[in-house]
User: Fold this.
Amino acid sequence: MRAVRLLPVLAFLLLISYFAFVAADDPPKPASVERVPWTTSRVVGSPDPPPPYRAVNAFPQIKFHHPLLLAAAPGSDRLFVAEEDGKLFSFRNSPDAKAELFFDVKAEFTTLKQTPDATEFDKLYGLVFHPKFAENRYCYVCYTVKGKPKNLPEGSRVSRFSVTTTDPPRLDPASEVIVLTYLQGGHNGGDLHFGNDGMLYITTGDSADPNPPDVLKTGQDITDLEAAILRIDVDHKDAGKQYAIPKDNPFVGVKIGDKPARPEVWAYGFRNPWRMSFDRATGDLWLGDVGWELWEMVHRIERGGNYGWPIVEGRQPVRGDVRAGPTPIRPPMIEIPHTAGASVTGGYVYRGKKFPELVGAYVFGDWETRRIWAARFDGDRLKSMVELTHPNVRVVAFGQDNAGELYVLDYDSGTVQTLARNDAKNNPSAFPRTLSTTGVFASVKDHTLAPGVYPFTINAHQWQDYATAEHFVALPNTSSILDHEEKKKLQGGRADWHSFRLHFPKDAVLVKTITLEKRRVETQLLHFDGEDWRGYSYAWRADQSDADLVAADGAEKEFSIPDAKFPGGKREQVWTYHSRSQCLQCHNSWAAYALAFEPEQLNRGDQLTRLGELGILKRMGRGDKPKPPYTAAELAKQPKLADPHAEGATLDKRARAYLHANCGHCHRFGGGGAVDFELHSGANIKNEKLWNAAPTRGTMDLPNAKIIAPGSPENSVLYLRMAKFGRGRMPHLGSEFPDQIALHTIADWIHRLDPKNTYGLFETLPFVDADFSFPDKDGLDKALRSPLNAMGLARATGVGLPKESTRQRVLSAVATMPDSDLRDLFVGYLPRTGERKLGVNPRPQTIFAKTGNADRGKEVFWAQKTLCQTCHQIDGKGTAVGPDLSQIGKTRSREELLESILDPSRRIEPAFQPFLLKMLDGRAVTGLLVKRDEKEVVLKDAQNKEVRVAKDDIDTLQPARESIMPTGALSDLTAQQAADLIEYLVSRK
Assistant:
């Protein structure tokens, strides 16, 4: 075959396509710089019902400085609070109580020099009273001392003290007996509780800073005391100790290699355990463990339990170079994504009398987002989790009094809060249900902005399936967005663990109206309520007169749009109005929420200067000193995203800008991406997790697959995921069609990452004759089996390049191909038959709205196209790659079953944890670990084939972050078929 120079033709078609769907969006400049106030806003509050409870100050006359814990003493009506800097106070359990000093560890403790190299007191972490306190007057305190080296081997200390019988009581500093010490470091644990068995339980962390994760490799090591829950008997003593080892501790007498396990260890595998508690009714031990990058965890602790750190964070793999401990990894009872929480605070199972409806619920919270939840369980399964209060308490710890009533410590205000029923919980919200009542537009029908609402433009647009977008900013009255020269933490916002460059005023609104083929389809509002950002969608009516607030779980609408590249000359397009929780997957705190309104996007012409002159954007220098608007010289030095479609920018800048706008909000530390490379504008593309890195989500049948294979788009899964339709496509939110302009850019960018390649990939494509004909059918079939040729042919098909007769030959050949990722490059151009399929990102409500039939679902399960039987068995039939589903209905609800299919990597059972094996020759295999010994490693792949690799040929072996079950398993099913399948699985009991 002759090589064909396609660049001029492709470039011309792409240029036409660009003007067809990318807004030419430089709005006219205002006639003057006089700011008009926005006074018509109705975007306040929330359309969601108020929470059932509110937090109230239980002891109005008491205020502490950075309190860390609250404890009760048996036989006493007093409560005790410890401050971070070492002071402990007691007070009577009465609303008019006043706090009285109980002990000042920093000022009064006498045994500092008993720890070698200790120089001073550090922090106080734990306090608990002996179950027989009324008789022996003992309490136990955990605190740390610091010195040199930084991590003191015995710097964390659990000490016993005696308490006076005076009123108020005092702790006697001279009575200190050091019971136990362990390594002091970044994550110390230090919580103390007596179990119903009378034993003292102690939490310890991994004694390290957040990054890199578990640098000491202590999480799975039970030969030390770190990253564990310890259990000791303080009423007896073994030789040389101030305590005894309970004989039923799980690792008594156990050896790990040549080293004895520490017999104090009760459970292990924790990162930064922050607050544990015992259910006084059942004796169950509950623990909150602060996560690393993606998840927060709550565990119900079992004897000898392994909770995974640092091999996993929740169920997501972290470190594959750490050998697992002697017991199996247990999944958490609750996993909270970092879109909802970022530093869990363990709580209590409520057993009080004040709120009968909460009895038996585990109440816990999150320090960073200030949320408080009540969770209920059905055995080992989370049954429900309800948010209890408006998030306005910095939840550092929970406590309970002797009657079982619950208290919450607010670290910021220093107050002790309790719950009260919210009288407003049944009051309807006045939040605007139509776009016309938001106050954003003077005329919604004419799309005319209200006075004080201003348009802005951005450099790099998000790809939204051929739609265009207009952006607006609305700030109450004449308030301003503060642009800090040095990033600062928010004051009072729920994301104040981050530092942000831009600080928005309360009730600021960012607006985006999306138009598809000259019809407005959606207007999105991003609202900052003073504490958090919330996203709302309004769906435009058919007559374009107004738009209606979309329900919290989202919605869908079908469009049929003339487009010659698609079957019948029409593009059948389903517009998805995303759920409010999906909005926050992209608009997350790690990406600074306001994705479009960021300086790199706004630095376009003199726009930043004009926004400054209007007072919309105020520059703040060092020391919060105001600065004048940007000058032209200053703008030239500011970060700036390129327009991905503008030929004036370099190829590298255009490619990086596209990845930033479409991928970078998730693919960044903490952003929620299931794979942990970064794609935002400041990312290092040559990072080892991206550049020439083996993919953790499978090779997609690419030869020598890499995430980015420099010089080879045909070996780069980043390109293939962008280019394909169906399951595994990226981005997985906001788009179901490939962006042909971006594919041209990204393919050439990857091609030129190899310095030897001086020409664009699509300048020559060696797969067809000049007239796009094929010598014979074998030539076409061969082209479709080659990643490079198939990708090139799909690109040509996507821009409508082949003549119609050739196009039909290609699609006819594709229609007979078996399912594969290469076939998915074309499937969007095949005719649709029958009822509409769910596609790659179906809404659960679309499925649950259908009444399922188990008999029909059985047929769906065993049908060849669903591939269920290729990985699962039922009643001995099928293939045993994944879990046996014969009785899956006993342990999974409908909601959980659907979640496991739609997002299989969210919860990976430890027994089915996939591993990624990289060979020295660059090849990679992903599969379940069958065998690992001194000679070889055996993996079982998704096709149930065993892959054997000699140990000498292995570069690395580590847990993969993704399930071997592919995403998009329901994409080729209708909603009814999916409902039938779920009903069949639920019936398996």
